[in-house]
Design a protein that fits this description.
This protein is of the alpha/beta class. It has one domain: TIM Barrel (Alpha-Beta Barrel), CATH 3.20.20.70. About 40% of the residues lie in helices and about 15% in strands. It is built from nine helices and eight strands. Strand 5, helix 6 and strand 6 form a beta-alpha-beta unit. Helix 3 runs parallel beside helix 5. Keywords: Cytoplasm, Lyase, Schiff base. Pfam families: DeoC. Belongs to the DeoC/FbaB aldolase family. DeoC type 1 subfamily. It is found in: Cytoplasm.
Length: about 220
């Protein structure tokens, strides 16, 4: 049975991460999200603090978009964002560590995710693994490291990497790896209702969209 428009809307992080986004454009994003009934908005940390209507959640990013920041910088960025009102943080993994196969809980991917999770406190942490730049073995290893480090979600993409965004293959593999224990967020290149439904069918429980209005316009109430 095809999910209804309201069900999909409640899975969307309505997103604006353009570096040049103004306060006025972010205000428009908030209004759009409230009108569309999305779960949250996701904005850059320089937009915080930000008032949002009751019921609309506030998310931001960390180590974005490259992930090539030190663990200490990512943790500090996450902690500051939460102190400024962010309820969810989407962090980018260190792709160098991933490609080197360093997933250890000492100085590898797992340790970095744990440091950011601790800085988040009660805020929800999503781990962006940049799946289009990884092979299947690396995707699985990233998901396992995220789970071991206490993350709440794994997420496909920043939407900024030249390798591309979300794919149904990556989403299905991520869901198979984390089971029901973590959420799976599909993000990057999802522009139509058909795209969104395919990601949900593959196992996504959250969708990162900038084209939320267009996607929802293609769905029935």
């Amino acid at each position: 049975m095809t999910p209804a428009r309201a069900q999909i809307a409640a899975m969307i992080d309505h997103t604006l991460l353009a570096p040049e986004a103004t306060a006025g454009r972010v205000a428009e994003l908030v209004a759009e999200a409230a009108e569309l009934g999305t779960y949250s908005i996701c904005v850059s940390p320089n937009q915080l603090p930000l008032q949002v209507p009751q019921g609309l959640h506030l998310a931001t990013v960390c180590g974005f978009p490259s992930g090539a920041h030190s663990s200490a910088v990512k943790a500090a960025e996450a902690g500051e964002a939460v102190a400024k009102g962010a309820q969810e943080v989407d962090m980018v993994v260190n792709l160098r560590l991933v490609k080197e196969g360093n997933f250890s809980d000492v100085d590898g991917v797992q340790a970095e995710i744990r440091a950011v999770k601790e800085a988040c406190g009660q805020a929800l942490l999503k781990v962006i693994i940049e799946s289009a730049a990884l092979d299947d073995e690396e995707i699985v290893a990233c998901c396992r490291a995220a789970e071991a480090a206490g993350a709440d979600y794994v997420k496909t993409s920043t939407g900024f990497h030249p390798a591309g965004g979300a794919s149904t293959h990556a989403v299905a593999l991520m869901r198979a790896t984390v089971g029901d224990r973590l959420g799976v967020k599909a993000s990057g290149g999802i522009r139509t209702a058909q795209d969104a439904l395919a990601m949900v069918e593959a196992g996504a429980s959250r969708l990162g969209l900038s084209a939320s209005a267009a996607v929802l316009a293609g769905l029935e109430d």
